[in-house]
């Protein structure tokens, strides 16, 4: 016996949050807390706030924000019919908020030396979607919407001005 659940679990599909996405698009990193205050149930909003704190080197705040996003995400998953296990795929865009909150909590847990929590969250993410960690690694998003994977502009877009 392998211990694996032989009954296939249905994929959990969270509802879209267009108002949260629009609010995040229209805000600066200094105003992220107001978006979270307007949408406190959104794991996406909490994950973005955690990412902003992380980028500013505020690890404990990032951990706290990610933890709230994680719990809000669990609430949303349960409301959508999730029973503690089963796929939560990155390909379904509304699932990305909870996956990003899990990732942010995992990252912060690792940074503060919580190896057991880091390992549990790694397992959780891999069970939810085996591609989630690598996809989020490739799509680190800053509060102003810049993606770390965005290519640099063509060289003709650079202007060098000087005395020469």
Report what the structure shows.
- It holds the Pfam family DUF3151.
- It comes from Cryobacterium cryoconiti.
- The protein is mainly alpha-helical and 164 residues long.
- The protein has a single domain (18-157), classed as Serine Threonine Protein Phosphatase 5, Tetratricopeptide repeat (Alpha Horseshoe).
- 52% of the residues lie in helices and 0% in strands.
- It has seven helices and no strands.
- It has helices at 18-25, 32-38, 43-55, 59-79, 96-111, 115-128, 132-138.
- The protein starts with 17 loop residues before the first helix and ends in a 26-residue tail after the last helix.
- The model is unreliable at 143-160 (pLDDT under 50).
Helix run count: 7
Quote the average pLDDT.
Answer: 88
What would CATH call the architecture? Alpha Horseshoe
Main beta-sheet annotation: none
**What is the name of the CATH class?**
Mainly Alpha
Distance between the termini: 75 Å
Under CATH, the topology is which? Serine Threonine Protein Phosphatase 5, Tetratricopeptide repeat
**Roughly how much helix do the residues carry, as a percent range?**
40-55%
Low-confidence stretches: 143-160
**DSSP strand tally:** 0
Radius of gyration: 18 Å
Overall spatial form: globular
Strand content: under 5%
* Global structural class: mainly alpha
């Amino acid at each position: 016996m392998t211990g694996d659940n032989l009954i296939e679990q249905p994929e959990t599909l969270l509802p879209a949050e267009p108002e949260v996405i629009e609010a995040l698009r229209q805000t600066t990193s200094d105003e992220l807390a107001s978006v979270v205050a307007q949408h406190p149930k959104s794991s996406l909003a909490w994950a973005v706030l955690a990412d902003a704190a992380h980028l500013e080197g505020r690890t404990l705040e990032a951990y706290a924000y990610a933890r709230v996003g994680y719990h809000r995400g669990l609430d949303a998953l349960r409301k959508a019919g999730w029973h503690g296990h089963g796929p939560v795929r990155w390909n379904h865009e509304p699932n990305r908020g909870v996956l990003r909150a899990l990732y942010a909590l995992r990252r912060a847990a690792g940074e503060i030396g919580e190896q057991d929590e880091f390992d549990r969250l790694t397992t959780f993410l891999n069970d939810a979607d085996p591609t989630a960690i690598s996809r989020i690694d490739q799509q680190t998003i800053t509060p102003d919407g810049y993606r770390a994977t965005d290519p640099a502009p063509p060289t003709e877009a650079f202007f060098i001005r000087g005395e020469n």
